[in-house]
Amino acid sequence: MKLPSSLKDIHPAAAVLIVTVLLAGFIFLLNGTELGNFLRAQLIGSAQPCNDQADNDNDGKTDYPADLGCQRANDINEDQDGECFNNIDDDGDGAIDAADFSCKILFNGENMPKSFCQDGVDNDKDGSIDLADQGCANAQDHSEN
């Protein structure tokens, strides 16, 4: 059997089949990841998690705009950052949403990461922890110095 010496020597139908198999294998490897879900939705045409009439993150809310984890109807993940947009101090640290250090950093909820002035660690090694440290102006301060 003679192998093709270049891509130009491959029959177009065979080339399409090869690309399809490679793409399907790539998506299979990414199964469960946001990129894999996005690619699958684009190729198969399935509804996105924020527009599929299902409570994908089990928070009691379904799809955009009811699920605060969905910023748009075509979002590929329902549990992005609802705690950072619900006007509630979810972690009880005195800061709501955009004012909460955790929401400023990663928009992944109000619980993580904590600022240095509320993480329970003597970050500057001066013997004082968090709000007891003179370097902390408030719980959202990220420097104990």
UniProtKB/TrEMBL annotation:
Q: Which Gene Ontology molecular-function terms are recorded?
A: calcium ion binding
Entry keyword set:
Membrane, Transmembrane, Transmembrane helix
Top-level lineage group: Bacteria
Q: Does the keyword Oxidoreductase apply?
A: no
Question: What is the organism of origin for this protein?
Answer: Candidatus Kaiserbacteria bacterium RIFCSPLOWO2_12_FULL_53_8
Name of the protein this chain belongs to:
EF-hand domain-containing protein
Transmembrane regions? 12-30
Q: Which residues form the EF-hand domain?
A: 76-111
PROSITE patterns per the record?
Answer: EF_HAND_1, EF_HAND_2
**Coiled-coil blocks:** none
Supply the InterPro entries for this chain: EF-hand-dom_pair, EF_Hand_1_Ca_BS, EF_hand_dom
